[in-house]
Structure formats: C-alpha cells, structure tokens
Amino acid sequence: MTDGKHEVLVIGGGVAGLVLALEVADHRRVTLLRPASDDQGASRWAQGGIAAVLSPQDDIEAHVADTLVAGDGLCDEAAVRFTVEQGPAAIEWLLSLGVPFTPDASPDAGYPYHLTREGGHGARRIIHADDATGRAVVETLRQHVDAHPRITLRGDLTAIGLIGDTQGHCRGARCLDGDGRVHELLAADTVLATGGASGLYRHTTSPQPASGEGMMMAAELGAELMNLEFQQFHPTCLFDPDGPAFLISEAVRGEGGQLLNAAGERFMPGIDPRAELAPRDVVARAIDAEMQRTNTDHVFLDIRHLGETAIRHHFPTIHAHCAGRGWDIARQPIPVVPAAHYSCGGVSTDLDSATTVPRLYAIGEVACTGLHGANRMASNSLLECLVYARSCARQLLEAETGSAAELLTARFGDRMEPPETLTTIREAMRQLMSARVAIVRTDQGLDEAARELGQLHRDLALRVREAAPSVALSNLWHALRLARLTVASARARRESRGLHFNPGCEVHGDADPHPSRIHLTDLDGS
C-alpha cells in the first residue's frame, strides 16, 4: 500500500523527533512515526539532565574544553563549539514550552533553576527536572505535538526500511502495520530519530533499547556510518537480575555518591584524581576491573552519608524504584554494574543533520555529529538532541521539496519466520557482543566475534530471502549487520582511545587521531 506523499517524515518520537516535528510543523506538514515502544526508549529514561552554560559562573569555553577532554582527542571541535553555543537558546525554548525544571530557591543562586554537576564537567551546568528529566521533557513536548494541527502521529506503523530513488535520494520509508501489511510512505524529506544501538548488548540501561535499526536503514541507501566502535557503558546501572533495566543517574555521583567494592572500600581515588567524577569510560573500566579482581558481579554506590531528606529531595525516582525492588538507599548502598548506555557513533551528519544521502537527515543518538568523539560527556546527549533537531528544522524550512524520481523498493517472500528462531539468534548476538565487544576488547575476542557473527548473519540471510516481512525479523536483520560493522570498526582501530580499550594496542597510538568511517559495502555478504 502506497500512502501519498508526505512533506516531512520523521521516524522516531523521542526528544529529537518531537523537537524536530514542533520546529517544522508551522511551515511544513509533518508525519511522525512514533510507536508505543518509544515510551520505553532512551529519551524518557534520561535521568540526569541537560548540559548547557546557564550559570554566571560558567562560560562557553569551559564547556567546550570539558567536552574535548572527555572526547579523548576525537571530537570535531567545530561541532562541539556549535553545540555548546546553541545550548542556552535551546534551554530557553524548552522553558518557553513549560518543561518543569527543578527551581533553585537558595538566596545565593545565580540562576533560577537548580544546576548539578556530573562526571567530566568542571562546573555545575546540568539543568534537570528532579531525577526524571527525560520524562518531563518528553511529556511536555508530546503535549505540544498532540495539539499541533499540522503534525500527524502514526503509532500504528513501524519503519523497516527506507525508500530510495534512481538518483540516490531518500524518498520515504517502508513500514509495517500491526497485521504485517507493508505501507510505503513517500516523503519529500525523511528524518531518522530512531536512537542508538545499546540493544546489541545483553545488559542495557533502557527497558526497550534500539539496536541500531535506523543506522542500518540509512546504510542500506549508501549513507556513511562513523565511530561505531565507541559504545558507551554507563558505569552505574542497578544490578537487579530479576527486574527491568534501570539507570542510576550520574547525578548521584555528582552529589557525592561513592563507589565501593565488595569489602566496602572506595577504589576510584586510587585510579583517577577526579575519583567518582572521572569521565564514564574511566569509571566503567575501573568498575569492570574491580569486579574481575574481586570475582564479583557488581559493586556498590553509596549515598547514605547524604541523609534521607536530601536523597528523597534530589532523587525521588531512584529512591522510589529501588524501594519497590527491596532496597532502602538511605540505609543501604546501591548494587550497580556497568551497562550499555549510549552509541557515540552512528550515521555521519553535518551541522544541519544532513547525511551523505540526499533528502535523508539523522538527529539524536542515531547520528554521529562529531560532538562526542571517543566518549560522550554526561548530559551532552539531550543537548545534542535539542541543538541538532533545531538546526535540522532550519535546513528543512529552506529546502525545496523537489519531485520524486523512479522509486526503488524491496520485495519479500511470504513464509513466516518462527519467533523462537529469531529470539535464539538475537540472544546469541547479544551474548557475543557483551563477551567480546564490550568495555575491554582483545584482538582474539574481536576475531572470534567477527567469525561467529558472520555465521549468524549467514544463517539469518538464508531465512530473510524467503520470509514474509515482520518487525522482529527486520530489526534483527538490521541489528546483526550493525554488530558486524561495529566489530569491523573495532578491529580496524589499532589504538586504545576513549571507549575503545584494547590492552593489545598502544594508548593513543595515532599521532593524528581520526574518526572511523564505514559503509555497508565494507561488509562481506552484506
């Protein structure tokens, strides 16, 4: 079924997709694909806040410098400066929409809203809504989107691929409805806001993480992917094997939380002078090493010394969730473990969020703007969503709609693939990625991952040729190929830098650090 021609098609309804829709809709009609799963995605579960220069005691140059340090020599400085400079205006825009950020009523406050500090930041510059910033921002944006007459929300469709034309331009998306029927939505401009690739791993900080589906949909049209090897592991996910994924915000350490090993001893001060406030790659590796040294499956994050009143005030969501799972964090340290959290790599874009495929844009975690380099600094992610969604909107308002050329679409078989088969392959992929391509990688482990993922890919490819389209099959097909590209990127980087740590390689081996760029055509049997 072919569904007309849409002006702007936005795929994904987290913060980036919602902001883009609102910024464009006054001038161009927007169709926003926002499946119910978006409510369980990364945006809503972002706890800490949004980094921006808001305090009189802070300045742009300091935020730029902190971001460059955290990115470990691989940031695009122009992208960093652009993002940081646009940050204050983006926050003012959110305030104008009514986002309920936490106020600061103290008499010496230099800014009306409370600002906290997180790892890697040299100042308090994280504006937040208690410890549920993502939820507050998403809910506010969603209210405005629902009320806008020129935004059409489609929660009944899931994109499984992009549509290209004979000129190499993107012309919309191929989608499935709940009954498995294919819908082709033709669009003048298409924007990916589909999230990252943390779902490639077994343990993540989001209940329903993306597995890089948008990245691979773009790659199928020839888009360049960049820096896939830099997958960030959040140091402190609640260790709760029987419960859902739950993030313990960086802000907990920002307010004085201390990491303890199984013996109740602090270990971060002996590893880095910034201790618990070191960048995430440093803290995650330290926790991983401590777990291996003590043969334990978690460490502890202790905030008991803050007192129950302060804990309930600053971290009501975390306190309530942990209480519901049996932990009183005012009296017990919190069991935590590193978990896949954020993809620093993705679809390569410019400052206007344009990809290397004409008429295709990418915003949010699916994109690689150059802001994060080899390691994202805390709370720069929602900032990136805001800034690049707004810059993309400006570009879309200047773009000519053009006319569609001859379209190229895929064809499917009609045999249904058993769900248990897909589950088995996905779990095997996640196990491999977690065991071989996680916080610490080795040449041998990467070689094993490449070989075994290649076999899984070949097994699935035989099924894809004959199978009827389904969301589960499409998502796994995208995820498995992205996992292979991630391994290829990690094998190609012959140095340890940022989130990519290989003890067999020299630390910062390249005199001239460079991003890694890869295309689907670089994968044998793609």
UniProtKB/TrEMBL annotation:
Q: Which residues form the active site?
A: R280 (proton acceptor)
Q: Name one GO biological process term.
A: 'de novo' NAD+ biosynthetic process from L-aspartate
What reaction(s) does this enzyme catalyze?
L-aspartate + O2 = iminosuccinate + H2O2
Origin superkingdom: Bacteria
Residue intervals of the Fumarate reductase/succinate dehydrogenase flavoprotein-like C-terminal domain: 426-503
**One Gene Ontology term, aspect cellular component:** cytoplasm
Q: Which cofactor does it need?
A: FAD
> What EC number(s) would the UniProt record show?
1.4.3.16
Q: Which residues form a coiled coil?
A: none
MF GO annotations = L-aspartate oxidase activity
| InterPro entries for the chain | FAD-dep_OxRdtase_2_FAD-bd, FAD/NAD-bd_sf, Fum_R/Succ_DH_flav-like_C_sf, Fum_Rdtase/Succ_DH_flav-like_C, NadB, Succ_DH/fumarate_Rdtase_cat_sf
Ranges of residues in domain FAD-dependent oxidoreductase 2 FAD-binding: 8-382
Q: Which UniProt keywords apply?
A: FAD, Flavoprotein, Oxidoreductase, Pyridine nucleotide biosynthesis
Q: Where in the cell is it found?
A: Cytoplasm
State which pathway it belongs to. Cofactor biosynthesis; NAD(+) biosynthesis; iminoaspartate from L-aspartate (oxidase route): step 1/1
Q: Where is this region: Disordered?
A: 500-526
Q: Where is the composition biased (Basic and acidic residues)?
A: 507-526
Q: Its family?
A: Belongs to the FAD-dependent oxidoreductase 2 family. NadB subfamily.
The protein's job, in short, is: Catalyzes the oxidation of L-aspartate to iminoaspartate.
Q: What is this protein called?
A: L-aspartate oxidase
- Organism the protein comes from: Halomonas urmiana
Q: Which lineage?
A: Bacteria, Pseudomonadati, Pseudomonadota, Gammaproteobacteria, Oceanospirillales
Q: Which gene encodes it?
A: nadB
